[in-house]
C-alpha cells in the first residue's frame, strides 16, 4: 500500500505514551466557573520575575538548530541557551507555539531582500502589508535565518525541527547497551508499547496486553493458534480506495517468506467508492466491476493461513490491519526496523528504503502501486536486517517530543502532582513514528480548522506545532493540496485570512507563551525539477562513467548544477519572528 494513503489513515490517530510513565493532566474546564480543575504551580521565587526573551541584534543569521535549542532550553532541563537571544526566568515561560507559514516574503514586511542581511533588525511597522497588522502588533524584530538543507537541497522545516541529535555520551551508552546484539525475527517483533503507540489493534495474545486495550477493537477478527506445515513468516499488504466513511479495502496480498503469493485478490467494498486513488492504489472502477470477494471472505482466508504464532511483516502494517479489521500479535514493521534519514519521529517511506538499500525503484508505475511488490520489498528489508544486525538502518537520534516528555523538569500542580510536559502537532504532514511522536496528532482540512483546534487544545499541551498552508496554496507554490482546487482562494484573500488567523491564535494562547513564526519562502518547483533531472542522470550514467554518447537532454551540465545551487540558496535565505506574549 502507498505511504501517502497510509499516512491519511494514521494522521488522525493520537499517539499514546506508556500510561505507567505518562500520567496525563486532566485539563478539562468547569463550565460554571471557567477555571481549570488543576493549575500549574510556579515556585514562589520565580513567580514574581517577569519572563523575557531578548533578541541579540548583533547575532549573525541563525539556523534552525538555534530555534530547536531555544525550545528545549525553555521546556526541558537543558542548560544550553542559544546565543542569538537571552532568556530571563525561563521557568515562567508556560508554552511554546511554533508556526510554519510557507509563502510569506520579506517584502510583506517592508524588506526588499534578505540575501545580504545578516543580523536581526527592528521592524518598521508602518511598512507592513495592510492585511498583516496583527503581525505588526506582536513582533518587533525580524530574525534572518537559513532554512535547513545543503548546497543542493532544501530540507522540510518541520522534519528538521523535531529530530534531535543525541549527545556523544548518550550515543556511547546506547551502543554499549546493544553491543553484540543480533537481529532476530523475535527481537524485531513490536512490543506492546510500540503497538499501542503506532495505532495497532491489540490481539489478546500480545504479551502484557490488558483487556481494555483488546476490547477497543472487539469487532475485529483475530488470528487463532493452529499447527500447519510450511512457512511461519508471511508478508501482508493492502491497497485501498476512499469511500465516504474513509479508506476501504480493495486489494489484499499475502506472500510467504520466499515471496510466493498465497493471496492476491481484489475486494469489493460494501460502500460506494468516491475516489479510487488510482495513482497510488492501482485500482480502477472497471477492475472491481465483476468482483464478488468481500471483506469477510479475505478475513477468513488469512485466518486459515496465518496462525497467531506466526509472524506478519509489512510496512506501517497497522493501516492494513485496521482496514482489514483484523488483529495479530506478532508484527514486524519495516517502518520501525529502519529509521527515516532525518531520524525519529518521522517514518521512512518504503520506496525510499528500497532505493537506498537495493538501488531499485518501486511505486513508479503509471498503473499505481503493486501490493505483491510491496510484500516482497518488506521481506527483502527484513532479510537484510537479519544479515546486517540490529543497529543497521537505525539513526542514533531522538525527537523533540521525546525530550520534552522524558526530562526531569516536570510541571507541578497546586495539588503537588508532578506531570510530564506534552506536545501537540496540528496537520503538519509529517509521517510520525509512534514511540517518538507527539502526545496528540490532529489532522485538519483547512487553516480555519487548525485555528479552531488550537483554541480548543492550547491549555492541554506545552509544545504546539502547526503549519498554516492557505497562502502557499493560493500562490501555487505547493503541489500538495490534496487535489482540492475549489478551496484555493485568491492571494489577497489568503493574506487577509492569515492576518485574521494569527490574531485569533495570539488571543488564544495564554500569557508567557513563546510564539515562533517561521516563514518558508520561495517556490520549490524549479528546485524539484532540477533535482529530478539530476537523479535521472545519476541513474542512467552515474554508475557507468565510461558511457560516451549521452544525449544533451539527459546530460547534467555545470550550468544546471549552478542553477540548482543558486535556486537552493535563494529559497534557504528566509526569516522568522519571535515574541513572548505578556
Automatic annotation (TrEMBL):
Gene3D superfamilies xref list: Ribonuclease H-like superfamily/Ribonuclease H (3.30.420.10)
Residue ranges, annotated region (Disordered): 1-36
Exonuclease domain: residues covered: 232-391
Superkingdom of origin: Eukaryota
Major localization listed first in the record, in broad terms: nucleus
Subcellular location(s) of the protein: Nucleus
InterPro entries: REX1-like_exo, REXO1/3/4-like, Ribonucl_H, RNaseH-like_sf, RNaseH_sf
Gene Ontology molecular function terms on file: exonuclease activity; nucleic acid binding
GO cellular component term of the entry, any: nucleus
UniProt key word Lipoprotein: no
One Pfam family, short name: RNase_T
Signal peptide feature range: none
Keyword Nucleus: yes
Record keywords: Exonuclease, Hydrolase, Nuclease, Nucleus
Family, per entry: Belongs to the REXO1/REXO3 family.
The protein, known as: DEBR0S6_06920g1_1
Gene name in the database record: RNH70
Amino acid at each position: 500500500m502507498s505511504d501517502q494513503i497510509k499516512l491519511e489513515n494514521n494522521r488522525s490517530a493520537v499517539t499514546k505514551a506508556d500510561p505507567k510513565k505518562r500520567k496525563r493532566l486532566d485539563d478539562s474546564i468547569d463550565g460554571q466557573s471557567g477555571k481549570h480543575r488543576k493549575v500549574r504551580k510556579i515556585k514562589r521565587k520565580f513567580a514574581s520575575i517577569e519572563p523575557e526573551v531578548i533578541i541579540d541584534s548583533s547575532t549573525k543569521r541563525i539556523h534552525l538548530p538555534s530555534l530547536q535549542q531555544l525550545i528545549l532550553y525553555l521546556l526541558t532541563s537543558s542548560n544550553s541557551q542559544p546565543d542569538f537571544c537571552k532568556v530571563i526566568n525561563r521557568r515562567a515561560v508556560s508554552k511554546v507555539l511554533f508556526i510554519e507559514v510557507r509563502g510569506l516574503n520579506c517584502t510583506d514586511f517592508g524588506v526588499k531582500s534578505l540575501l545580504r542581511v545578516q543580523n536581526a533588525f527592528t521592524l518598521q511597522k508602518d511598512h507592513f502589508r495592510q492585511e498583516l497588522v496583527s503581525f505588526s502588533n506582536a513582533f518587533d524584530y525580524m530574525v534572518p535565518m537559513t532554512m535547513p538543507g545543503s548546497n543542493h537541497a532544501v530540507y522540510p522545516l518541520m522534519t528538521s525541527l523535531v529530530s534531535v541529535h543525541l549527545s556523544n555520551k548518550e550515543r556511547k551508552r546506547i551502543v554499549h547497551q546493544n553491543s553484540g546484539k543480533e537481529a532476530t525475527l523475535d527481537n524485531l517483533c513490536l512490543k506492546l508499547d510500540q503497538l499501542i503507540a503506532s495505532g495497532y489493534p491489540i490481539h489478546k495474545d500480545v504479551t502484557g496486553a490488558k483487556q481494555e486495550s483488546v476490547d477497543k477493537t472487539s469487532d475485529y477478527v483475530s488470528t487463532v493458534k493452529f499447527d500447519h506445515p510450511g512457512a511461519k513468516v508471511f508478508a501482508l499488504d493492502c491497497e485501498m480506495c476512499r469511500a465516504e466513511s474513509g479508506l476501504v479495502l480493495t486489494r489484499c496480498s499475502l506472500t510467504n517468506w520466499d515471496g510466493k503469493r498465497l493471496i492476491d485478490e481484489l475486494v469489493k467494498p460494501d460502500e460506494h467508492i468516491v475516489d479510487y486513488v488510482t495513482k497510488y492504489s492501482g485500482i480502477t472502477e472497471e477492475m472491481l466491476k465483476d468482483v464478488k470477494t468481500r471483506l469477510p471472505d479475505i478475513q477468513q482466508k488469512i485466518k486459515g493461513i496465518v496462525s497467531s504464532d506466526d509472524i506478519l511483516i509489512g510496512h506501517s502494517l497497522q493501516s492494513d490491519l485496521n482496514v482489514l479489521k483484523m488483529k495479530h500479535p506478532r508484527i514486524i514493521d519495516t517502518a520501525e526496523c529502519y529509521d527515516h534519514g532525518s531520524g525519529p519521529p518521522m517514518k521512512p517511506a518504503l520506496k525510499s528504503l528500497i532505493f537506498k538499500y537495493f538501488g531499485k525503484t518501486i511505486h513508479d508505475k503509471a498503473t499505481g502501486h503493486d501490493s505483491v511488490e510491496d510484500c516482497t520489498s518488506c521481506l527483502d528489508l527484513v532479510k537484510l536486517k537479519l544479515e546486517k544486525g540490529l543497529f543497521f538502518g537505525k539513526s542514533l537520534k531522538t525527537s523533540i517530543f521525546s525530550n520534552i516528555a522524558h526530562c526531569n523538569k516536570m510541571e507541578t500542580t497546586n495539588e503537588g502532582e508532578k506531570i510530564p510536559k506534552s506536545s501537540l502537532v496540528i496537520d503538519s504532514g509529517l509521517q510520525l513514528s509512534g514511540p517518538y511522536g507527539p502526545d496528540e496528532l490532529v489532522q485538519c482540512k483547512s487553516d480555519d480548522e487548525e485555528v479552531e483546534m488550537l483554541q480548543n487544545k492550547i491549555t492541554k499541551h506545552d509544545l504546539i506545532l502547526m503549519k498554516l498552508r492557505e497562502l502557499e496554496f493560493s500562490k501555487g507554490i505547493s503541489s500538495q493540496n490534496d487535489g482540492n482546487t475549489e478551496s484555493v482562494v485568491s492571494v489577497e484573500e489568503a493574506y487577509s485570512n492569515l492576518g485574521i488567523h494569527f490574531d485569533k491564535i495570539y488571543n488564544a494562547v495564554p500569557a508567557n507563551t513563546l510564539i515562533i513564526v517561521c516563514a518558508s519562502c520561495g517556490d520549490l518547483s524549479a528546485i524539484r525539477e532540477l533535482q529530478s533531472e539530476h537523479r535521472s542522470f545519476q541513474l542512467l550514467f552515474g554508475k557507468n562513467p565510461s558511457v560516451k554518447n549521452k544525449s544533451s537532454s539527459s546530460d547534467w551540465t555545470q550550468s544546471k548544477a549552478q542553477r540548482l545551487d543558486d535556486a537552493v540558496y535563494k529559497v534557504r535565505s528566509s526569516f522568522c519572528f519571535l515574541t513572548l506574549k505578556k
